[in-house]
Amino acid sequence: MEQLLELVRAHGGRVTTPRRAILSSLLELGSHVTAEELAEHVQERHPDIHLSTVYRTLDTLAKLEVIDHVHVGHGRAVFHMADETHHHVSCRRCGAVLEVPDSLFAELARQLEDDHAFALDHGHFALSGVCRRCRPG
């Protein structure tokens, strides 16, 4: 927790009670949590912290590069700590979210850049497919 608070300070952010509570809840809940799930968890401990404060704080923490968000399938964005670069794949049947290494997209990103002068931003959305558990046979 202290490392995260130092990261907030290092990027010019203030450490407020709501930010501390929201970061604490993010750490407790783990990754891939929606703003609503996070707000519910925060409000159980701090009923005075409103949903709008959670949204504003998530936006600020993302700008400070303390957290990231990713859009998974057709659902809402989910948030996770910005600890190391990884990307996401999501099962369209059961909703499972898997983290995959950045290196998996390196060749595709290079080829898009070389052939089309296109810089791939593959971290903002999860790729959709069907996981091993949900595939027939």
Main-sheet strand order equals 4-3-5
CATH superfamily of the largest domain: Winged helix-like DNA-binding domain superfamily/Winged helix DNA-binding domain
Q: In the CATH hierarchy, what is the architecture of the largest domain at level 2?
A: Orthogonal Bundle
Overall spatial form:
globular
In short:
The protein folds into two domains: 2-68, Orthogonal Bundle (Arc Repressor Mutant, subunit A), CATH 1.10.10; 86-129, Ferric-uptake regulator, C-terminal dimerisarion domain (Dna Ligase, domain 1), CATH 3.30.1490.
Structural commentary:
This protein has 137 residues and is an alpha+beta fold. It folds into two domains: 2-68, Arc Repressor Mutant, subunit A; 86-129, Dna Ligase, domain 1, CATH 3.30.1490. The chain contains five helices and five strands. The strands form two sheets. The protein has a three-stranded mixed sheet, with no helix packed on it. Strands 1-2 form a two-stranded antiparallel ribbon. A hairpin with a 5-residue loop joins strand 3 and strand 4 (97-101). Helix 2 (17-29) packs across helix 3 (35-45) and helix 3 packs across helix 4 (51-63). The longest helix is centred in the N-terminal third of the chain and has 13 residues, at 17-29. 20% of the residues are buried.
Notable characteristics:
3-stranded mixed beta sheet; 42% helix; 5 strands; 2 domains; Dna Ligase, domain 1; alpha+beta; Arc Repressor Mutant, subunit A
Secondary-structure map:
Blueprint: H1 2-10, H2 17-29, H3 35-45, H4 51-63, E1 67-71, E2 77-81, E3 86-91, E4 97-101, H5 106-116, E5 127-129
Parallel strand pairs: 3-5
Antiparallel strand pairs: 1-2, 3-4
